UniProtKB/TrEMBL annotation:
Transmembrane regions listed in the UniProt entry: none
Keyword GTP-binding included in the entry's annotation: yes
Domain G: 12-125
Alphabetical list of InterPro entries matching this protein: FeFe-hyd_GTPase_HydF (IPR023873), GTP-bd (IPR006073), HydF_dimer (IPR041606), HydF_tetramer (IPR040644), P-loop_NTPase (IPR027417), Small_GTP-bd (IPR005225)
SUPFAM superfamilies linked: P-loop containing nucleoside triphosphate hydrolases
Keywords: GTP-binding, Nucleotide-binding
Listed name of the protein: [FeFe] hydrogenase H-cluster maturation GTPase HydF
Record domain Hydrogen maturase F tetramerization: where: 317-432
Presence of keyword Nucleotide-binding: yes
Species, as recorded: Veillonella rogosae JCM 15642
Pfam family, one: MMR_HSR1
Domain Hydrogen maturase F dimerization, chain residue ranges per copy: 214-312
Length: 439
């Protein structure tokens, strides 16, 4: 519980050409050997991600990407992977070298980041200039990413580097139009490391949760919240799933009372309380039974609906419910999950939801499934998208997927909204948020 979930961290992507110095910069900024560094071009192939704490940024996920000028046979596939990173990150660091002119590839990727509204920190690698200074001073410097403060340049040397970087930026005016901040990346200076971290810390990340919480506006000090967490064959052994853990933690943060039980124990828990609970939150798969067991004077919703409110646009997901009644034999439905896990015999996405649709008379549907980072660019072919609660995805990625569906005119719902609608209890399940949805 003490660790920030990966999906709630600020995601920072590092971009640039092969041997621009991305991996070395990551190791310098993090003060750890996160990325493999080599003079061999193309050392970084697929994106490499690492969760960590970096002050003043706090909890982050660092993603090192392949060089954008990768000309190997797998280069096209690697660029597709890099493009996926662009769509998920909250901040971008782009690395150029003072001894290399910006190419059309550089401008393309900087433009793509700008097009996606990602704040860009452009760091100019001065390594060639530093080597020239060292040659002039007849000093041989061994660049060691585990000991980045070996070299302390004198004032004259620092002024020379700043002058070279300034001249580089002025000679390529288009860079200033694309980047949010620009800094010179002297990998040998610990002082420069702090300066670059401050530049990153001054940026406003795109589409992060920020101060918003799962239970914002729903819980106050002293409120009792009952969480119904069924333990079935799909439940992980020895632990709760992430949305349940996050909800418990937030109740405690609000100084509320988190009461946890399984479905059939709900009535006895309610009866044991002196005052009715403020709310009951259940696993969506138990919606119908929990609805029967919970007096209608007590608000009821699900973890999945809370996640939909927290991560994306609940009103769009609720609006997608109207498409359910229009499904007919042959309709194409995409069922998408944000995580990748081993399928159980009663898996919710591939088994329970399809069976629930059949019980409601929606037979002979063309079902397709995606998981993890996979999500089609073209969703116009589908009559409906059914998405999970997205606890493992960043808010930016969830908003992108919802926008992708809305722009292409494809209705989208999430698991909790769909299941509540099919059981005829959607109005009750979204009643705690009805003002937000209408607004």
């Amino acid at each position: 519980m003490e660790q920030t979930p990966k999906a709630n961290r600020v995601h920072i992507g590092f971009f640039g050409r092969c041997n621009a110095g991305k991996s070395t910069l990551i190791n310098m900024l993090t003060d750890q050997p996160v990325s493999l560094v080599s003079d061999v071009a193309g050392t970084t192939t697929d994106p490499v991600s690492k969760s960590m704490e970096i002050l003043p940024l706090g909890p982050v996920v660092i993603s090192d990407t392949a060089g954008i000028d990768d000309t190997t046979e797998l280069g096209v596939l690697r660029m597709e992977k890099t493009e996926e990173v662009v769509k998920k990150i909250n901040l971008a660091v782009y690395v150029l070298r003072t001894d290399e002119e910006p190419t059309s590839d550089d401008m393309h990727w900087l433009g793509l980041l700008k097009q996606n509204n990602v704040p860009i920190a452009l760091f100019i690698n001065e390594i060639n200039d530093i080597n020239e200074i060292n040659v002039e001073n007849k000093e041989k410097v061994e660049l060691n990413t585990a000991n980045t403060d070996k070299v302390e340049l004198n004032t004259a040397d620092k002024e020379k580097l700043e002058s070279n970087t300034s001249a580089y930026i002025k000679s390529h005016k288009g860079l200033s139009d694309l980047a949010t901040v620009i800094g010179s990346a002297d990998f040998t200076s610990n002082t420069k490391r702090i300066e670059l971290l401050d530049l990153l810390g001054g940026l406003t990340p795109l589409d992060v949760e920020g101060e918003q919480t799962l239970l914002q506006g729903l819980v106050e000090e002293g409120d009792a919240i009952i969480l119904v967490c069924p333990i079935d064959s799909a439940a992980p052994k020895g632990r709760l799933i992430l949305p349940q853990v996050q909800t418990i933690r937030e109740i405690l943060d609000y100084k509320g009372l988190a009461l946890v039980c399984q479905t059939e124990e709900l009535p006895s828990m309610i009866n044991s309380l002196t005052h009715p609970p403020k709310m009951v939150i259940c696993d969506s798969q138990a919606f119908d039974r929990v609805d029967e067991l919970t007096p209608h004077t007590i608000p009821l919703t699900s973890f999945s609906i809370l996640m939909a409110r927290f991560k994306g646009k609940l009103q769009d997901l609720v609006a997608g419910v109207n498409a359910i009644k229009n499904l007919k034999p042959g309709s194409k439905v995409l069922i998408s999950e944000g995580c990748t896990h081993r399928r159980q015999c009663d898996d919710i996405g591939t088994v329970k939801i399809p069976n629930l649709l059949k019980k409601q008379g929606h037979t002979d549907l063309q079902l397709e499934f995606t998981s993890g980072g996979a999500f089609p660019k073209d969703v116009s072919q589908y009559d409906l998208i059914i998405h999970c609660g997205a606890c493992m995805l960043t808010r930016r990625e969830v908003l992108r997927r919802i926008e992708c569906a809305v722009v292409q005119g494809t209705p989208i719902v999430n698991y909790g909204v769909l299941i509540a609608a099919l059981h005829g209890i959607l109005e009750r399940a979204i009643s705690p948020f009805i003002d937000e949805i209408k607004g």
